[in-house]
Amino acid sequence: MANTFTLLLALILLITIIQPMLSVQPYDQTLCTTPTPPLYGSTYTCNSINKTCKTYVVYRPHVNQTVSYIAKLYNVNESQLNSTSHLEYREVLVPIVCSCPDSSSRVVVNYTNDNSYSDLDIACQVYQGMVKPYVLAMQNANLHETVVVSVPIKCACVNLSDETIGTKYLVTYPVMESDTVDVIAQKFGVTPGSILEVNGLGPKETIFGGTTLLVPTRGPPVLNLDHVVVTGPSSQDIIPVSGIMKPGMENRFSFFLIIFASISLLGVVLFLIFLKWKCRYDEPPPLSVTGSDLKRVSPDFLDDMSKLKHSITNFSFDELKLATHEFSVSSSIGKSVYRGLISNDIFVAIEDMDSIESGHHVVNILTTINHFNVVKLEGCCFETNQAYLVFEFAENGSLRDCLQDSNTRKQLTWEKRLKIAFDLAEGLHYIHHCTKPTYVHRNISSENVLITEDWRAKITGFKFATPVVYIAGVDFDSGDWTDSLIIEKKDCLAPGYPVDVYAYGVVLLELLSAKEAGIGRKWLDCVEFLADGEVLGGSTECLEKFKTFMDVDLEGEYGLGDAMCLALLAKCCIQDDPQVRPTMNDVLKTLSRIL
């Protein structure tokens, strides 16, 4: 009976973990004017059972704009805006009907482009970043040849998870440069935490002007602007309602702009000279960078930072021969991998790469990314038409080595295995979501997971890693994407990512069972006993099969509920259909609830 109760708790835990994740709409921090599509967030995902819903968007009118103009802009009746307009505060709630014709939710409005504005002008200035230019271009194949433009405005519908906590509407809000989550929450009378949660944001993450946020409300939204200062219509440049400036006005504007820029440049130069003079006499204070200090750092700056490469040591071939005793058998620790001793006291792993090209490929990747759970590249050697890479040394070898050796396997306690699972998920999440460009590893296995002396996991084996590149209108079935993986702009799921997720699920099952990875459907067949009906019913046979599946060297020293959750998570990862596998973001959130 106790075991059945534990199983039910495990299932309930898994459901409560996964269901809220489905309601998260990832925040897209890229500016409206950014030419390259982000990995996610340019549109909101349909995750509601309803195909349509009534909701709202916020429009920030410019000076002299009327309710009639706004109604025409969003194809609604003027009477619908009378009770939601706050022209004196430049905030208007526009009621819309959001629809889900496919994987993205949106409301399509018609805009009469009498002034022949570009997709950038319409998206970022007329509609204030409520649609991205490349999404607008995809909606209108011949944008420059038509007067009536179809504009897909971002919107989202609540799902069952949202309704469970009382959320009735998800309001699309265009962020200004002066906005903070606290200010937005005050406007709508909601908690900052609810905004962070629905947008997938952490408590210290930054929001940027020219982007959009979803605001969850428990009823028809009401703007509380009595004590909120609204500074302007938008952080983006504004196109006047009457059209572009006349040539004479533009010339005068350019003249004053040049004078202003010159004066500003002179001021900056004088300020730098003053700083240089001051630093000669003053000891510089300690540098302290906090989350608040980075609050207004633009994503473009962070993008440029990601392109910086860190330096590595260039070893000679003689140095490597000396470190490995002429690449002796006693120094071999794996296929084409040797343990070497440099500087008399530092052990490293030296890998003989297949070719110069593959060596350069790995160097280019590992010198631009940096994460605790990704193996560190210490140096390289490109001599004698061969490539050798020098990595940090993992004292416990690979995870496969640890699981195969009976003595080491006994040291892999349940707590250590949980931490290894979390480390591997963090490393994969980093290369899937946090690097520029993002990467698909394509070679994740227990052999390519290194275990350090303190039982932490690091990903290695980047020889087949591939950057993800955005290319519009490419046929995935053509096979013409061997050098880099591609994402068609309308697709939410990138080709290749599910490959890493599947491999993660296999490694997770190896951690649980200590059994070696199988071929084909072997792993999925092994966990078929975890059928939903059997788990829900607390089947005794299911429980016994699960205990048999688990590594005997754990000697039952593990939480049955946690172990069952991990097994069910692994089963989700190795499903045949890549579309139903979770993302590494989902996996990481699930694990964070278990640990």
List strands and helices in order, with pairings.
Layout: H1 2-22, E1 44-45, E2 52-59, H2 67-73, E3 85-86, E4 91-99, E5 104-112, H3 119-126, H4 133-139, E6 148-154, H5 160-164, E7 169-174, H6 181-188, H7 192-198, E8 212-217, H8 247-279, H9 299-306, E9 313-314, H10 317-323, E10 332-334, E11 337-342, E12 346-352, H11 356-366, E13 377-383, E14 386-392, H12 399-404, H13 406-411, H14 414-434, E15 439-440, E16 449-451, E17 457-459, E18 466-470, E19 485-487, H15 497-513, H16 522-526, H17 532-536, H18 540-549, H19 560-573, H20 584-594
Parallel strand pairs: 9-13, 18-19
Antiparallel strand pairs: 1-5, 2-4, 3-4, 5-6, 7-8, 10-11, 11-12, 12-14, 13-14, 15-18, 16-17
Helix pairs in contact: 1-19, 1-20, 3-4, 14-15, 14-20, 15-19, 19-20
**Share of helix, binned:** 25-40%
Helix count, per DSSP?
A: 20
Can you tell me the overall shape?
globular
Mean of pLDDT: 77
Description:
The protein has 595 residues and is α+β, with helices and mostly antiparallel strands. It has 20 helices and 19 strands. The protein has helices at residues 2-22, 67-73, 119-126, 133-139, 160-164, 181-188, 192-198, 247-279, 299-306, 317-323, 356-366, 399-404, 406-411, 414-434, 497-513, 522-526, 532-536, 540-549, 560-573, 584-594, and strands spanning 44-45, 52-59, 85-86, 91-99, 104-112, 148-154, 169-174, 212-217, 313-314, 332-334, 337-342, 346-352, 377-383, 386-392, 439-440, 449-451, 457-459, 466-470, 485-487. The strands form six sheets. The chain has a six-stranded mixed beta sheet with strand order 9-13-14-12-11-10, with helices on both faces. Helix 1 crosses helix 20 (584-594), helix 14 (414-434) packs antiparallel against helix 20 and helix 19 runs antiparallel to helix 20.
